[in-house]
């Protein structure tokens, strides 16, 4: 299967799952898919991001070599799906210790900025909580960010995740 050509054929879950199934646990195929997500134009990147996410749900170890690139892409003018799925994957995959500072900074910035999509901000709350578990001294700063997010953006996804996170932060 030509992954890039398949991405251009159709958009949707069926095609994304077919690509994810084809990639499976194969590092070389995954590398091709990651290049499509990180280096191709908007439409290809958007569709690749969905398949990358599906692969990482089953094989989270495949994303580890790309963590720095996922952080870099958060500052790039790419399709929103690439940003959203990059953060979504960080909820579940191993986060390299050498990148903890950048990850924490990026997630706190996402939570604080209501210009980012609700999904990005909601996923960022989960990733930030992972960082606070490792670095409890950050809990007060995250608590303030979450309280502010609840005042500024009381949408359901933000409200749900922020409320749960605040309960955990307060109980510890």
Quick rundown:
This protein has 172 residues and is mainly α. The protein has helices at residues 3-9, 13-23, 27-39, 42-58, 67-73, 80-90, 100-112, 118-134, 139-152, 156-171.
What is the number of beta strands? 0
Rg, nearest Å: 16 Å
Q: List the uncertain runs.
A: none
Please give the count of helices.
Answer: 10
Tell me the count of domains.
2
Give the overall form: elongated
Give the overall pLDDT as a whole number: 93
Give the N-terminus to C-terminus distance in angstroms. 50 Å
The share of residues in helices is: over 70%
What does this structure look like?
This protein is mostly helical and 172 residues long. It has two domains: 1-94; 97-172, no CATH class. Helix content is 73%, strand content 0%. It contains ten helices and no strands. Helix 5 (67-73) packs across helix 6. It is elongated and about 50 Å long. The mean pLDDT is 93.
């Amino acid at each position: 299967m030509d992954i890039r050509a398949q991405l251009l054929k159709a958009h949707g879950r069926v095609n994304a799952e077919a690509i994810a199934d084809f990639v499976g646990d194969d590092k070389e195929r995954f590398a091709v898919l990651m290049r499509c997500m990180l280096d191709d134009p908007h439409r290809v990147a958007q569709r690749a991001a969905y398949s990358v996410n599906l692969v990482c749900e089953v094989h989270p170890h495949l994303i580890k070599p790309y963590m720095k690139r996922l952080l870099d892409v958060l500052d790039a003018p790419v399709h929103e799906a690439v940003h959203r799925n990059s953060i979504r994957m960080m909820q579940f995959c191993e986060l390299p210790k050498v990148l903890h500072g950048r990850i924490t900074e990026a997630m706190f910035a996402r939570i604080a900025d209501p210009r980012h999509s609700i999904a990005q901000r909601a996923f960022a709350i989960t990733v930030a909580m992972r960082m606070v578990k490792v670095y409890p001294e950050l809990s007060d700063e995250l608590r303030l960010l979450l309280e502010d997010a609840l005042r500024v953006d009381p949408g359901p996804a933000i409200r749900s995740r922020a409320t749960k996170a605040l309960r955990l932060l307060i109980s510890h």
